[in-house]
Design brief:
With 151 residues, the protein is an alpha+beta fold. It has one domain: Nucleoside diphosphate kinase-like domain (Alpha-Beta Plaits), CATH 3.30.70. The protein contains seven helices and four strands, in the order βααβααβααβα. It has a four-stranded antiparallel sheet with strand order 2-3-1-4. Bound molecules: 2'-deoxyadenosine-5'-diphosphate and magnesium ion (MG). The site of 2'-deoxyadenosine-5'-diphosphate has 9 residues, from loops.
Length: 151
Amino acid sequence: MAIETTLVLVKPDGVQRGLSGEIIRRLEQTGLKLVGLKLMQVSRELAGKHYGEHEGKPFYNGLVDYITASPVVALALEGPNAISITRKMMGVTKPAEAAPGTIRGDFGVDIGRNLIHGSANESDAKREVSLFFSSDELLRWDRTNEGWITE
Ligand code: DAT
Ligand code: MG
């Protein structure tokens, strides 16, 4: 079982709409473990590093404007298959196509306001967790009920 750490951002629309707690609740209830959590303002420089793969695309400037518009909540979540479990909980990129029960499916209507970021794969997860969290902000702690979450 691969233990992964993934980066999640509750994007500015999620924070503005008061959905931070609801989104964290859904992710936390899966059994994934919070190892990093903070409210932060994303700079244009950090946004550029984070979304580098999209530079030059027609939606890129709007994407940087959006993610830097007001604070985000950044989470680092750890656990077996943390990346794919988080992506499943998020739903697909376009809220209109995201399944009911997913965060984007339940709370979104517009691809440009899709509420949440989650790392796409292991190499992105490593890069993104270290972009948003310094090593002293990542807490490795023991959970007393671990045996009731993983075998
Ligand atoms: P995801 O956030 O599901 O990983 P992505 O990495 O392909 O999706 O794109 C990053 C963000 O960019 C996405 O959450 C919303 C925005 N985006 C992607 N494709 C877009 C498009 N065709 N039009 C507008 N915004 C788009
Ligand atoms: Mg992505």
